[in-house]
Amino acid sequence: MLQSDIPGVPRRQGKVRDVYDLGDTLVIVATDRVSAFDWVIPPGIPGKGKILTAMAKFWFDLLKVPNHYLSDDVSSLPAAFQPHATELAGRTMIVKKTTVVPIECVARGYILGTGWKEYRQSGTVCGIPLPAGLKEADRLPEPIFTPATKAETGHDENISFERMVQEVGQETADELRSKTLDVYRRAAEYAEKRGIILADTKLEWGRLPSGEIILIDEVLTPDSSRFWPKESYRPGGSPPSFDKQFLRDWLETTTWDKASPPPELPADIVAKTAAKYREALERLTR
């Protein structure tokens, strides 16, 4: 991956992606960095950036939702990028620049994670009442929309729809809820036919200068969604998944306090995590 800035091009480095600003467009580079518990965990997952980029492009094309993707043609980038063309190929998207809506738009079809934690305490998720007696990882009667605030550092915070309305206005909140649930339902139906349960997903949306709201960022990848193999799904616990759960589980067995630099991943955990990402892409796109 690029270890330095491109001369003359502003760069913002996230945990796992680098974003270069070309003025009216952005260049998003998906690296092989991997994050867990709000830390970047060395040494990374080989091929991860290319897998996530391929998956996002696949979903953009399949769903036909207005989105920010323009091209993956590295040769069309300014000359300053060309010495790095080999590194950038397959993991780069050139996209429209938007004003990002400051809400994480989450659709849940199953109950797990922070939703399960809230449900056990109050019988709700983001203030939405749910039926009594649900088990962990149970399928919900209908998918629900559970927004969250976008955090620069630390974890996003689940909020109620009413709080979202206060943040972005009623019209935008209604539109984002409708768009998010539509994407989730169609993607979940497609994935299930290929043996994958899409338990939940987090989407981001941005507004063009024209006012149109479009889908941005990565979409429906194992980093932004929970994918479970359908053949081994059983409610009552946390199912196996096509993501970095191997990695998280291993970290939990160490003495790492999550407040200091993390340990390096052993080779077998890196290999297993990479295999899960590859399998998810292969199942979905075959």
From TrEMBL:
One Pfam match: SAICAR_synt
**Listed GO biological process terms:** 'de novo' IMP biosynthetic process
Name of the protein: Phosphoribosylaminoimidazole-succinocarboxamide synthase
Q: Which CDD domains match?
A: SAICAR_synt_Sc
- Catalysis performed (reactions): 5-amino-1-(5-phospho-D-ribosyl)imidazole-4-carboxylate + L-aspartate + ATP = (2S)-2-[5-amino-1-(5-phospho-beta-D-ribosyl)imidazole-4-carboxamido]succinate + ADP + phosphate + 2 H(+)
Q: In which pathway does it act?
A: Purine metabolism; IMP biosynthesis via de novo pathway; 5-amino-1-(5-phospho-D-ribosyl)imidazole-4-carboxamide from 5-amino-1-(5-phospho-D-ribosyl)imidazole-4-carboxylate: step 1/2
InterPro entries, alphabetically? SAICAR_synt/ADE2_N, SAICAR_synth
Q: Which residues form the SAICAR synthetase/ADE2 N-terminal domain?
A: 13-260
Q: Which family does it belong to?
A: Belongs to the SAICAR synthetase family.
Q: Which gene encodes it?
A: purC
Provide the GO MF annotations for this entry: ATP binding; phosphoribosylaminoimidazolesuccinocarboxamide synthase activity
EC number(s) of the enzyme?
6.3.2.6
Gene Ontology cellular component list: cytoplasm
Any idea which UniProt keywords this protein has?
Answer: ATP-binding, Ligase, Nucleotide-binding, Purine biosynthesis
